């Protein structure tokens, strides 16, 4: 078992979210997890790309986040990789998010999972979807940065 100081701070990142959404506000939420899920997270067996956050009954839930169980999981546990996980935020933050999400075009997107003081945290963002031309601009920008880096690298040699 890894000690708290040895744990990598980032567990998983949703790189697809930055391509598909503009981020308005970011929040850090705690997560309610089972023991086998925490062990699988330590091994990095998580996929966050298809995940999204849903508000039901004044509570936040992370849906679509896959945490694949380890093969050495206990025999008495029936792991469900696609289990809905509850996110923990303060009531006033949840109320603010409910008001914003009800506006047209806003959604809640998980950005990453990370360790903080030995606990798993999920960074979520209030996001607005990008139009197709915005996605093309993002691609052009990324390719431009790559070309500049290549030019600088070849110049240094």
Automatic annotation (TrEMBL):
Stretch list, region Disordered: 133-157
Pfam families hit by this protein: SmpB (PF01668)
Chief location bin: cytoplasm
CDD domains (alphabetical): SmpB
GO molecular function, one term: RNA binding
Assigned keywords, A-Z: Cytoplasm, RNA-binding
Domain of life: Bacteria
UniProt family annotation: Belongs to the SmpB family.
Name the record gives this protein: SsrA-binding protein
Organism field: Extensimonas vulgaris
Gene this chain is encoded by: smpB
């Amino acid at each position: 078992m890894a000690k708290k100081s040895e744990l990598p701070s980032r567990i998983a990142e949703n790189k697809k979210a930055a391509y598909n959404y503009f981020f308005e506000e970011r929040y850090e939420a705690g997560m309610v997890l089972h023991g086998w899920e925490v062990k699988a997270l330590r091994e990095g067996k998580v996929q966050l790309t298809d995940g999204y956050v849903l508000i039901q009954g004044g509570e936040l839930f992370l849906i679509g986040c896959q945490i694949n169980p380890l093969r050495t999981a206990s025999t008495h546990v029936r792991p469900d990789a696609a289990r809905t996980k509850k996110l923990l935020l303060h009531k006033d933050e949840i109320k603010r998010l409910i008001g914003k999400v009800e506006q047209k075009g806003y959604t809640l997107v998980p950005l990453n999972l990370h360790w903080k003081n030995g606990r798993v945290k999920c960074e979520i963002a209030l996001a607005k979807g990008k139009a197709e031309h915005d996605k093309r601009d993002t691609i052009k920008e990324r390719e431009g940065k790559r070309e500049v880096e290549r030019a600088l690298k070849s110049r240094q040699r």
